[in-house]
Amino acid sequence: SWTHPPSPTSISNLSLLAPLFANSPGDPQSPSSISWLLHLQTPLEILSLQPPSLGSSISNLHLFYLQPLLEILHLQPPPFVSSISNLHLQPHQPSPFLLKNPSLFCFPVDVTLDPTTAGPEVILSEDLKEATWGRPGRRWPEGPGQFDTDPCMLGSEGFTSGRHYWEVKANGRFWAVGVARESIQRKGRVLFKPNAELWGLQKYDELCVALTAPSNTSVPLLNGEIGVYLDYEVGQVSFYAVGSRQRVFTFPVASFSGEKVFPYFCVLLSTIKLSPKG
């Protein structure tokens, strides 16, 4: 595990942000509001982390990660669930959830990662079944489709029709999963903000949101396997909590306009592992 010195100035400086709650529901000085405000200490501490495997590369986590976090402070955080660290894609295994929902099981897809889209600080395995946040030992050829700022990537196969379902076992502090247009912005920051070209869920410590526009929508904190369902013709993107067999969120009907869409992933302080095809 990583260790870092306490940051006494972080909490004192965060007290200056209390006026941001002036336009939020409830009392800005209430204990719950102040407690939620103090969660901002976490991204500040990240900037001082020095993981042995990364060394000076932590400097690449610029302060631009903080501003969009302030923008979602108006959301009421869901109850705390212990943080998780890995993402396991299991599109082909008949989980108990799929056995209860056979219509979804009819459309499983096997997902691999596209190295030509992987952003910086993403380590990819040789078989393209695993991605880890960190300094890569080898560099894949750069291309125009690469995310140049955030540790994001697309799946290798895109879709222009049909129904498709895959599962992601989420286990980390910062991650995002979903579906993205082929034309998604790949230059500059993508994390922590709504995006009209992306239909996804994103977790930041104890907060989980759907990336809706013009502002994010708070959803229950997810722990464990997440099912992602895409119906291209209908324009439906839905997310399911596999463990509880509950639908978590369905985006408003999307118009893909004939454009190819891809599985989308983003890893920060986390790993994704894709199961081999059975």
Automatic annotation (TrEMBL):
SMART domains, alphabetically?
Answer: PRY, SPRY
InterPro entries on file: B30.2/SPRY (IPR001870), B30.2/SPRY_sf (IPR043136), Butyrophylin_SPRY (IPR003879), ConA-like_dom_sf (IPR013320), PRY (IPR006574), SPRY_dom (IPR003877), TRIM/RBCC (IPR050143)
Task: Tell me which residues make up the B30.2/SPRY domain.
Answer: 91-278
Q: Which domain of life is it from?
A: Eukaryota
Name of the protein: B30.2/SPRY domain-containing protein
Task: Print the organism lineage.
Answer: Eukaryota, Metazoa, Chordata, Craniata, Vertebrata
